[in-house]
Amino acid sequence: MAVRRIKPNILSERFDESRAFYRDVIGLGGGDGLDWVLFFGTDQREVQLSVMKLDIKAHVHPDVSIEVDDLDAVYERAQAAGAEIVYPLTHEDWGLRRFFLRDPNGAVINVTQHD
User: Which domains does the chain have, with CATH numbers?
Assistant: First the structure.
């Protein structure tokens, strides 16, 4: 199993200000997304940051997203370890499988795998 990408998720309702800040001040590209999430990054897929309102499906804010190549294996290990599953293993309409779990520090981690 390999981790493909780690992406911070910033909770915000201030999308216009976030676009200006992350594009004009920080120098990231993007600022497009859906009505509840914006994506910023570079030409390297691994460099990405999201600004989002409360997650539209889970209704919980994930602090970090971690993309893996074997979601089922991570889910099984999380269950075996007794980790708190905050949002169940779900196949989302936008072509992503994911689940949320809480880490030992209380952070919510969105573990994902693209279809």
Answer: 3-114 (3.10.180.10)
